[in-house]
Amino acid sequence: MRLSRAYDDSMRHHRIPSLAGVHACIEISEPNKGHVFLNVADGDVTLSREGKPDCTITGKVEGDLLRLVRGELNLVTSLLQGRIAIEGDVMLAIQLAGSLPEVGGVADLGDAR
Amino acid sequence: MSESISILDGNTFAVSDRRGDMEGGIGDDRGLFRHDTRFLSRWILTVDGRRPNVLATDDLDYFRAQFFLALSTGTIYVDSHLSVMRQRAIGEGFHEEITLLNHGKEAMDLDVQLEVAADFADLFEVKDKLTKKGELYRRVEDKRLVLGYKRETFARETWIEPSKPSTFTDEGLGFKVHLPPHGTWTVGLDVTALSVVDGPRPKPGVRRDLAKTLTDWVDGAPRLTCSWQPLEAIYARSLRDLAALRFRSRLVPDFAMPAAGLPWFMAMFGRDSLITSYQALPFVPELAATTLKVLAAMQARTLDPFRDAEPGKILHELRLGEMTAFEERPHSPYYGASDSTPLFLVLLEEYERWTGDRKLVAALEGPARAAVRWIDEHGDRDGDGFIEYERRNVETGLDNQCWKDSWDSIAFADGRIAETPRATCELQGYAYDAKMRTARLARVVWNDPAWALELEHSAEKLRAQFNRDFWLPERKFFALALDKTKQRVDSLTSNIGHLLWSGIVDADKADACVRHLTGPALFSGWGVRTMAVGEGSYNPIGYHVGTVWPHDTSLVVAGMRRYGYKAEAARVAMAVLEAAVFFRHRLPEAFAGYDRASCQYPVEYPTACSPQAWASAAPLLFLRSMLGLDAQGEHLIVDPVLPPEIARLELLDLPGRWGRADAFGRSRIH
């Protein structure tokens, strides 16, 4: 997974209207692959290498995070199946999950090459 | 041995027989359940190969129960010398203590066995008799018995740990007990249900905080005194049941919102949580705050046909079992409800009006705007001005996406089922009310008077159109729905009471509606039937076509009160409260619609959930209606009209934006 692609876009701001009113930091992580932080401030999303996450989504199955970011995997079913783990504010993760494809699309997070 | 004893905390619950044994088969709700999965399906105690007999069972607290048993001697002429006590309390599963007492002068050597098994059935499988697709296993490790289930990455385990050395067998675990004369022997058993097998292990044992939490909950609610004694017991039971049904999901562990009902609906339901929170708002407003926050967070953002999700829609149901995990059911979450979205807006406004909590309402402006957009765009599928529904998920989605969600509930007077898309009448009422209320919030909280005007115009247009298109002049009530061809579905149902509650009914049509609701076809004497006697689909024991639902009647009563029919509202409320006495002060989800004159007690509906959140909260809305409680500005308004049976009614320390206030009522007849 090219989470590193996100770093190339770091500090870029993206406007995701459906996240208006949300202020949070969420970490997306895949062991031995890397991680990225999504900093959300009232609908403005910034990608960064560092952050203090309110919740961390960790992929346990190769490629799942990529599919999650692309909107091909549902966060709740992935969690129930044990394909991902969430630490911290689970409700926040669910809230943001619906917007992940928008973030991924804008930031090219989901571009696996 | 058919009566069930339940202990619960949110969606962890254990259902046994009166011995404390669990034998849960397909279609049987016995066992230990957590996260919509049965973690124990067999838990049977024997002593020397025999199952003790029941002396007494005590389940006064919702989270713990005691079972007093004795080993039969086989004859009434010989007293048993062995007592068996089982004390069980809910936790991350449950903790049970088994105590044997030898009352005799001789020592006893006993073989105590616990037969245990887990089928890890999803609740949908328990109900519908489906086959498991993964592998069951069991192992013994570190003095514990582990029962497990695995399907790909999906794994669930039940750990059973005794406090004393035991022997583990294929059937369970056993103890060789030597009891001296007048001696006592006790063993503790921790049963832990693990939904995450490779994560941190939950702490086994009893949740010690539950007793205090319950005490705080009851102490924080208004105090009621009443000349009609059963009402005090009904009120106490309602508060305790609402406490029991507070739901801490694995997905929202820090929040407690009302789950729908035991045993089948211990899950997050948008409609049920919203209506329960509305009914309970003047008493325990924290339920509403939590419900609004959680449902807003899970509001749909994208179009997802499998889940019947559309942007802005509020969820219908969230499940955590295996079938949801593998998308064999769409409940992750499922959005197949057309009323939860307008009801979200109704509750949001009601919450602000009672509590004055503008901070939360300000934070939920985005979800509120998205909800209004859903009503106008996706709710009104064909642009005719009305909300109508038709499932996108034709395999496992709900055919009826209104509160009467059984397949046969929306029927013509001649019994024909209406075709989808269906626009049921109460959905239009909710939409009208939602827009009027949201307009007020737009004006006073979100500082958007232009939008407020727009919403009021839209609501007014809907009101006029509805009163024209749904009214049946020949029968003098509103049609249950418009069907696919916009034909009026002409059955007389309780839904017209929801219309009164919403305020969409023109003043000149209200009287006819109230006459129907209090007339013999709809009013059974114990409450308002969901469908009137004489309609083609009427069945007094049909789930939504003739039974009485206490929550339904509570909204009907609130509606009659809204239109000034105070005495009629009090009379109908009293009927349901009298019915509650026959259910040991706990109103069930529904009961049969037989006429009161033909039977001296309300007849049970066989598969009704109990406790059920909106049935438990119905007495609270009856109280509000009888006392005429309302919030206006910074003040609590009290305008009581009591039924003749209640001479005096007092509610002390009602919370609200005024702080705490008291309400008193006296019957005018006494």
Can you characterise this structure?
The complex is a heterodimer of chains A (113) and B (670). Chain A has 113 residues and is an alpha+beta fold. Chain A has helices spanning 4-8, 64-70, 75-81, 90-97, 100-107, and strands at residues 13-15, 23-30, 34-41, 44-48, 55-59, 84-88. Chain A contains five helices and six strands; from the N terminus they run H-E-E-E-E-E-H-H-E-H-H. Chain A has a six-stranded mixed sheet with strand order 1-4-3-2-5-6. The termini of chain A are close together. Chain B is an alpha+beta fold and 670 residues long. Chain B contains 17 helices and 31 strands. Chain B has an eight-stranded antiparallel sheet, with no helix packed on it. In chain B, a hairpin with a 2-residue loop joins strand 30 (648-656) and strand 31 (659-666). The longest helix of chain B is centred in the last third of the chain and has 21 residues, at 449-469. Chain B is globular and about 85 Å long. Chain B starts with a strand and ends with a strand. The relative contact order of chain B is 0.08. The chains are: A alpha+beta (113), B alpha+beta (670). At the A-B interface, helix 3 and helix 4 of A face helix 6 and helix 9 of B.
Specify the biggest β-sheet of chain A.
Answer: 6 strands, mixed
The CATH class of chain A is identified as: Alpha Beta
Q: What's the alpha carbon Rg of chain B, rounded to whole Å?
A: 26 Å
Radius of gyration of chain A, in Å, reads 12 Å
Q: What share of residues of chain A is helical?
A: 25-40%
Work out the count of structural domains of chain A: 1
Give the largest interface.
A-B, 24 and 37 residues
Helical region count of chain A?
Answer: 5
β-strand number of chain A: 6
